[in-house]
Amino acid sequence: MNQYSRKELWKALDQLAPLQFAGAWDNVGVLLDALPAQKVQQISDEKILLTIDLTESVFEEALAHHCTVIVCYHPIIFGGLKRLTLAHSQTRTLLRAAQAGIAIYSPHSALDAVRGGVCDWLAGASLLANVSSLNTKNFAESLHHLCTEYAPIEVDQADPSQGAGRLLTLKSALSLDFICKTLSTSLNMNLSGLQKKPYLRLATPEHYSSKVDDIKTIALCPGAGGGLFKSIAHVDLLITGEMSHHDVLARIQSGTTVILTEHSRCERGYLKHYQTLMTQSLSIPVVLAESDDDPIYLYRG
After folding, report:
1. Distance of CA 227 to CAs 53, 162, 204, 230, 255, Å?
2. Of the candidate ranges 80-89, 206-215, 256-265, 286-295, the one whose mean pLDDT is the lowest
3. Topology of 115-264 in CATH?
4. Cα distance between residue 265 and residue 100, in whole Å
5. For residues 239 and 203, what is the distance between their CA atoms, to the nearest angstrom?
6. 159-170 core/surface letters (b: 16 or more CB in 10 A; e: else)
7. Rounded to the nearest 10 degrees, how much is the dihedral formed by the CA atoms of 49, 267, 20, 281?
8. Structural domain spans, the chain
9. What is the per-residue DSSP string for 161-192?
10. What pTM does this model have?
11. Spelled out in words, what is the top-level CATH class assigned to the domain 7-108+269-288?
12. pLDDT in the model for residue 3
């Protein structure tokens, strides 16, 4: 009988993005602790598929690459499941993973909050032209040279340097044009041939000029930042994936500019760095899913 336990792997993944930093609302960590196949005798026998979302197409990639674990940034189990049947793609994937002995793990908001995580990457992607060449530990360090203040919006009580979102005060004001060009370039790096070209949606106050250097305070959050932004009275710019129409309208009427990237497009660019971190710390193969992409795209008729 196979005596191998994945506790060593889960501990290593937790060290990269400690689950204690995840939001109380989130569902992170081991989502499916499937019994590994007989061939997996130790951690070096594992192979990870890394993705933002675990769709059926992504699961087929895991099978094709003979992966034993899927690390999906977004938890495939989020709300309360009442039954496991083949009728729904989510539960169908979970059943197939269990049958194949493929475990599933999600770091989600813990990976956002940790130093050098998704939040720091998104800040760097917005302000640093060379973000793709930086080591993850250098995201925050490089930004400190541009900022008089740089901190999480919602700090972790145990470590105030880590937490949800980021709030920045720049030493020198920048234009919206500069930030949009930098962010657009960063989001379009390292795409596979199957992934759609990311784009930005903008909302600006009336009579606003994107060429004027007037952005000095920025709040950002990967994914959907509307709820987190409610704690912020005013900044010059908000950057996130999606916000409600009414939240956007209220912000621009108060003089704040908003950049929306679509939900997962401000997260996916970090996966290349996360892949490198996992490969170096775990010394096992980590494959990036090629079919993983944001479901929303622009129609140009």
Report:
1. 22, 18, 20, 6, 19
2. 80-89
3. 3.40.1390
4. 30
5. 11
6. eeebbbbbbbeb
7. 40
8. 7-108+269-288, 115-264
9. TSEESEEEEEEEEE-HHHHHHHHHHHHTTT--
10. 0.94
11. alpha beta
12. 64
